[in-house]
Amino acid sequence: MPSLIAEKTEARPNPRQEEAARAKGVSPGRRRAVSVARGVAGILTLALIWELAPTYGLVDAYFIPPLHVVLEEWWQMATDGELAKHVGASLVRSAIGFGLAIVVAIPVGAAIAWYRPVREFSTPVLEVFRNTAALAILPVFTLILGIGEASKISIVLYACFFPILLATISGVATVDPQLLRSAKVLGLSPVATFRKVVFPAAVPTIFTGIRISGAAAILVLIAAEMIGATAGLGFLINYAQFNFLIPKMYAAIITTALLGVAVNYGLVALERRFSRWRPA
Amino acid sequence: MSSRITLDGVGQTFWVRGDEDKQLREFVAIENLDLDVAAGEFLTVVGPSGCGKSTVLDLIAGLAEPTSGELRIDGKPITGPGLDRSVVFQQYTLLPWRTAAGNVEFALEAKGGLSKKERAAGAREYLELVGLSEFANRYPHELSGGMKQRVAIARSLSYQPEVLLMDEPFGALDAQTRERLQEELVGIWKRTGTTVVFITHDIEEAVFLGQRVAVMSARPGGIKAIINVDLDRDAAAETDVRATREFAAYRHRIWSLLREQHAPAARTEELVHA
């Protein structure tokens, strides 16, 4: 099995040789199909352990039922519409909060980064907010906005806002000065410079913030739904646990995990779509 | 098409903080510098590193304002950047998210007054001028250093400036690519008739390219001498101009001028360190 050292230091043609040959270097032992198969095998191993451990009494089958029991329950919930209702409720809340965060944080971040005094004034304040766990101030939101949709959407907005804001500030503030000099030579107006140079340059950094926020949106929402809600995945997990509907609880947890994976992959795909110009 | 640049007693000082004493003080980058560039001329400026060559270029480009003296272009004072001048920097300043053609179009967008179609046509024309037609749709990271610099040159020429300012544009390239680009640049200059001010620390490059070579002195920077170079560059493609005796003589003269000012500078540095 090739180690990391062997893998990374493998002899390859250099870029000039690749250019001359109009081809890209490859390692013969590495094929996409094999890589994918290995990943699938990993997931299957996890599934197998989950299935066999309760069956052979390694863990209490009442608290951790075998995987097939959980999957049967999941399928039941998926077909009778129960799952759709809760996933729908959670998705709408996180999408609205996440969307609002993007729409607000990017312009605010750009404005803060543009003027150094504003940047220096707001950075410590923003650091305080960023390092205040969103869930720590959930009671404040509940106090002010009640236990309805508004407080849940707000908590998602809060959790998503700071990663995007700080990423935008850093992306805009660290724009390559040489690019700004060439824009200046061309006599570009500040607005045009922002639109054509600064913002596109900041997009990859902003996307890092967006991806962190995407994960945070689901995480925080699940927790908020556990505290006060009548629908949503967080509510479902908590409700199932209270009523000893153990397979249902695991089915809801699996759904949450799948949702998280889907959101992350979706954002990665979107990021790739917007940064095709970057070296692979 | 061409323009006349005048630098009249130009000085530039910056605020610096000492590495050792942490004191704020003024640093004189260039002092009392006079220079005239004729319309359509190819002038190279050579000098030791840190002598203020790039500062001179920034001032002509309008990216900085002089502390003293005056810069004029066609008799009008330079107050800021303008589309009558363009700059090619040493670092590749292409927008990495735009293709080669997109980068040339960027300059045409700044110029304004052109339709999308006209911009695309302009980009194609100038990429052809630098021999990159086939690579119009490549992103900068897919281009070699030499190709990137050709795109930068195409971008700078695309809006037909009267003056092309170049700040060690070939400094980061390998020797063969550099020589080829030098020859191509002379060809482009002859075809377009643009006034070129070309900064370099490479004496051979200065002699090969320049009709006149301005030799700068260091700290504070000023013009030490101006050498007229009379070489038959038309034959450049066939014979190796760089191997001729005349070329060697010019090279040696400039080398001696630079060496002359180096020696006393080295001695004072020794004294400072002692």
Automatic annotation (TrEMBL), chain A:
Entry-linked SUPFAM superfamilies: MetI-like
CDD domains: TM_PBP2
Keyword Oxidoreductase tagged: no
InterPro entries, per database record: MetI-like, MetI-like_sf
Keyword Transport among UniProt keywords: yes
Coiled-coil stretches noted in the UniProt entry, renumbered to this chain: none
Subcellular location: Cell membrane
Transmembrane segments: 95-116, 128-148, 155-173, 217-237, 249-270
Annotated keywords: Cell membrane, Membrane, Transmembrane, Transmembrane helix, Transport
Comp. bias intervals (Basic and acidic residues): 7-22
Annotated membrane topology: Multi-pass membrane protein
Region (Disordered) residue spans: 1-26
Domain ABC transmembrane type-1 residues, every copy: 87-271
GO terms for cellular component: plasma membrane
Pfam families, per database record: BPD_transp_1 (PF00528)
Example GO BP: transmembrane transport
Similarity annotation: Belongs to the binding-protein-dependent transport system permease family.
Protein name as catalogued: ABC transporter permease
Species in which this protein is naturally found: Mumia zhuanghuii
Lineage: Bacteria, Bacillati, Actinomycetota, Actinomycetes, Propionibacteriales
UniProtKB/TrEMBL annotation, chain B:
Alphabetized GO MF terms: ATP binding; ATP hydrolysis activity
Keywords, ordered alphabetically: ATP-binding, Nucleotide-binding, Transport
Keyword ATP-binding set for record: yes
Annotated InterPro entries: AAA+_ATPase (IPR003593), ABC_transporter-like_ATP-bd (IPR003439), ABC_transporter-like_CS (IPR017871), ABC_transporter_ATP-bind (IPR050166), P-loop_NTPase (IPR027417)
Domain ABC transporter: 5-243
Pfam families in the record: ABC_tran
Superkingdom of source: Bacteria
Family matches, as CDD domains: ABC_NrtD_SsuB_transporters
Name listed for the protein in its UniProt record: ABC transporter ATP-binding protein
